[in-house]
Amino acid sequence: MKRLLYSVFIFLVMTQTVGADETDVTKxxxxxxxxxxxxxxxxxxxxxxxxxxxxxxxVTPLFDFQLMAKLSLGRKYWPGLxxxxxxxxxxxxxRRLQESYLDKLRLYTDEKVVxxxxxxxxxxxxxxxxxxxxxxxxxxLYKFHELTNSWLIYDIEVQGVSIISTYRSQFxxxxxxxxxxxLLIKLExxxxxxxx
Length: 196
Description:
Largest sheet: 6 strands, antiparallel
CATH class: Alpha Beta
Shape: globular
């Protein structure tokens, strides 16, 4: 009986350790990528277009754009798309997400980035961060899910607002009054800059 209890105890400790390792590795990966992207933004010897290109190359491997595209349409619309429509939508939505992420990063070149305690819940990891300047603090929550032995971002919350939920609401409005072609045409157009 003691041997059985000991075995169970060892198993639980090992399981928690593995979970902690995954969380720590994922957090360190995110830290490395974000710091590398901000470092590119601070370069003065390359133009903005080259900066954008380098940043996209740095951060793209962190994201599960395919899942994000699917989640942004949800069960209401995604199942009704043809394979070609799904592929086209995913391509356009990925580009829109990349532009949006670049836009947010450009706001923070001199701020301090703080990576807070990450949390693992089943097959998901949440990593809260704060972008701290003299006059403001912006909270961001990176949400990762497990996919074939790696962890990828499937959503980001900025000041408590989910990017995926925001897009889903926008897309629902368009699709409730139009078609997938209307949405694709909308996504092909550059996103209007928001007032900062």
